[in-house]
Specification:
By secondary structure, the chain is an alpha+beta fold. The strands form two sheets. Strands 1, 4, 5, 6, 7, 8 and 11 form a seven-stranded antiparallel β-sheet that branches. The chain has a six-stranded antiparallel β-sheet with strand order 2-3-13-12-9-10, covered by helices on one side. A hairpin with a 2-residue loop joins strand 2 and strand 3. Helix 4 packs across helix 5. The longest helix has 24 residues. 53% of the residues are buried.
């Protein structure tokens, strides 16, 4: 298994977009296209990663709040403790076990944040998390979404949002001391769907969509950037899409003179 990780504390230049790609997977991260106009702790609190193996690809984005620590901890924990099992070619029953796997992973990630930051910190860092595991050989796309970041897939010439919260739903975060197996239930969305004709899987934090900051039509921006990436050589399409989608957000921030961090991840499967 091979992995790549970008964390906010290393990327604090306004307007800059950093990206990493290998094969079908790519990630991009930016502080944003303008300074934040709301109260914040760190300039860039997002983190993003991919992991790839012969069995498939894992993508994850985390949008930190009240500091960069929680997003970095949760992504690192995901790569170290969970991705190797999910991307093991011998693991052929992930679909049937995914509800339990997703719940256990989120509980474990929450505990890792609390352990790292401290149980008694009132203003401790929290984070959202969206992850997707694509295993083409098993025709499987498993995902878990906690918070207001985005998960899309493109197929049959259209963009489909997966795991999106219902309008008006409360946004929950990882990093709360006292979270247990029962209290965690109902705070996230997780499912397994067939890959079918999925062309690309796309993740993005809410720097893409934040009202008055990001783009007005996030799904439209995904469609545009995936369409543009089609013209690139096959081994560069994921990179072009991830970097291009981050650029859409950065351009919007610049135009609106109000910024937010943006992390994107793409798995190009078609």
């Amino acid at each position: 298994m091979r992995t790549a990780l970008l964390v906010g504390r290393d990327h604090s230049l306004i307007g800059a977009i950093d990206a990493i790609a290998e094969g079908c997977a790519a990630i991009a991260l930016s502080r944003g296209g303008a300074a934040k106009t709301y109260v914040y702790k760190d300039p860039n609190e997002d983190a993003v990663a991919f992991a790839i193996s012969g069995a498939g690809t894992l993508l994850a984005v985390a949008d930190g709040h009240a500091g960069h620590e929680a997003s970095e901890v949760v992504i690192s924990r995901l790569l170290e403790a969970h991705a190797p099992r999910w991307l093991d070619a011998e693991n052929d029953d992930l679909s049937s076990r995914w509800p339990d796997e997703a719940h256990a992973m989120l509980l474990d990630a929450n505990a890792a944040i609390v352990e790292s930051i401290g149980r008694d910190a009132v203003e401790a860092s929290r984070t959202t998390l969206v992850l997707a595991v694509a295993r083409p050989g098993d025709d499987l796309l498993a995902y878990a979404c906690m918070g207001d970041s985005h998960l899309f897939r493109t197929r049959d010439g259209r963009v489909e949002a997966l795991g999106a919260p219902d309008p008006g739903d409360r946004t929950f975060f990882l990093g709360h001391a006292g979270e247990d197996r029962d209290s965690l239930r109902g705070k996230y969305r997780a499912d397994v769907v067939a890959l079918g004709g999925t062309r690309a899987v796309v993740l993005a934090t809410d720097g893409l969509s934040e009202e008055g900051i990001g783009v007005d039509d996030p799904a439209g921006a995904v469609f545009e950037r995936i369409s543009r990436a089609e013209a690139a050589p096959p081994d560069l399409r994921a990179l072009e899409a991830a970097r291009g989608l981050a650029a859409c957000a950065v351009d919007s921030h610049r135009t609106r003179r109000s910024g937010d961090n943006i992390a994107t991840a793409v798995a190009w499967l078609g």
